[in-house]
User: Fold these one by one.
Assistant:
Number 1:
Amino acid sequence: MNKATRKAIIAGNWKMNMTPSEAAVAVKKTAELVEGKNGCEVVLCVPFVDIAAAVEAAKGTNVKIGAQNVHFEAKGAFTGEISAAMLVECGVEYVVIGHSERRQYFGETDETVNKRTKAALAAGLKVLLCLGEVRDERLAGITDEVVSMQTKLDLAGISAEDMKNVIIAYEPVWAIGTGLTATPEQADETCGVIRATIAKLYGNDVAEATTIQYGGSMNDQNAAELLSKYHVDGGLIGGASLVPEKFDAIVTAAQ
Ligand code: 13P
């Protein structure tokens, strides 16, 4: 198994953008542009309230719909939360877990990321598991230690079989929404560290088969070079995914 045989995944993370009617238009437009571009999986991760409109608009296209979070309990008194079964019944196939904005603003920890990941996998969802270092950690030279620790904690207790449905999104926090992108070499090196950690946990075959995306100011200009790197198997795209033409250019770069 090598880069050529790993499934490339280009996923948009809309974050808190787009109302349901705007989502329907944007999904349709994106689907028209990416039609027939089957060299990678195309996913749009939309706000919960947009899911119904997005799933409807994506019907019969090669765009898959994802959510941006999921709760770890199956049901109960968890006001404001959404379960994995709810997402599945709505037609969601992917879910973003552990995004740095959730870790930073909503108290997400490696422990809750791990629990959410297990719940999502048990329900049959594919997980886009986000991790990455903050600026001070990179400056202190401890990026490798940080991403390796996050990988181990976030995947604790998850089986090799379940790893088929886990995609890692390496998102250096200092590169998110800042216009600062990791260089292709930095992205490749750190995605390589994550892959080596997966190899320690699950062996080489699982590590070589796991899709690892880069995220952080990826756009239509820098995508081709980032995606050409051995360990970079796709992208998780914020800002540029809100503009169908820009997102399509990234999908095209991944073909
Ligand atoms: P930007 O592409 O806007 O930097 O966001 C990246 C990201 O956080 C995707 O999850």
Number 2:
Amino acid sequence: MKLLVIGSGGREHALAWRLAQSARIQKVYVAPGNGGTASTELLENVNLTAIDDLIAFAKKEGVAYTIVGPEAPLAAGIVDAFRTAGLKIFGPTQRAAQLESSKDYAKAFMTRHHIRTAAYRSFTDPAQAKAYISEQGAPIVVKADGLAAGKGVVVATSVQEAHQAIDKMLEDGAAGARVVIEEHVSGEEASFMVMADGHEVLVLATSQDHKRLGDHDEGPNTGGMGAYSPAHIITPALHNRIMREIITPTLQGMAKDGIPYTGFLYAGLMIGDGPDASRSITVLEYNCRMGDPETQPIMMRVKSDLTEVFEHAVNGTLDQASITWDRRIALGVVMAAENYPGTPRTGDTITGLPQNTEECVVFHAGTRLDGKTIKTAGGRVVCVTALGDSVKRAQVAAYDVVRQIEFDGRQYRNDIGWRAMSHAEKPV
Ligand code: AMP
Ligand code: GLY
């Protein structure tokens, strides 16, 4: 079978890589792909991004189904267009993707369906936004309403910083014609992802991301600088509560609103302190796709034939699907280009990339194949992902490889996994 994966990041490399391990796979096309998908067996890059071109390609090649990685094509209606053309595709429709593409929509949805989220107000007028911030005080969170690749959020520790964020988002940003101002919620974050087919739901392994650029969670927010799976904080008791309090009401709420949800659904959660039965579980954001870099460690742990899982998902029979997970911990460290999360420097040659092994895979993101060399081509460059019997072992294995990979201006965190290690760790 031939499949098509849309996107060019580490998430898409990881998805395509795992799909390609199925004996059923003849080819996994990745559009447009990156330097890693260009040099992985059974994967082939397709240099197309326009939805019409992708539809024509999928028809010509007899692609069995398409999987959409990033949010932008979903928000642009790729799922609607493929379905209208009679093609199978996994992802939410344009209307359903508003859960991610409009923070304002998502907040109103959660309020309407009694799903716990931070208190908020939304504004288009900078003066009113600033007055509200002054009245609320800091810490306070300012979010651009539209898609901003994980960079449209400012967790402000002072009123002045929040006012500056308003200036930036309401006066010069296209994504920021509207802002959402949110109450600051404290606790520990976790990423909870499921697959939905409009009726049934299949829960994926849990994970935890590291959003800040620097060690000790300092510096600006990024798309994510590293992740591991599973997230120790999500005990079986919390897992049940998250399904009951967040995931089920979300999917039922969408169905009730007449927008049945298909695709990945990612709830970015803040888990408050306390015993599991009473800890607060607050939705910080929905994403209508898998997380990046969370996908990389999650894919390392998939033991089932992923092509079958997606087949059930696009056919509406997810109740018949299951995934067996490797019991080990997978941990991924992102190596980013100079100046990320600002405009990254690109075009540097990457050296020291090792052969992948069963226990450590380098997933590419902002790279391109240039003749025989791999060059940097984006902000997050690679995500080195390793398996281990403990977080510590996975961390050591990943960093051993990270230290071999060189390109000018590279930056990475040295402490991916620190939170997991601060929970009393039992080897699996
Ligand atoms: P988002 O894109 O909405 O997940 O926001 C990016 C990051 O900002 C989150 O992963 C959190 O670390 C932080 N954040 C977002 N909303 C809040 C909030 N209401 N309180 C505290 N931190 C937040
Ligand atoms: N790593 C967070 C995200 O993909 O939104």
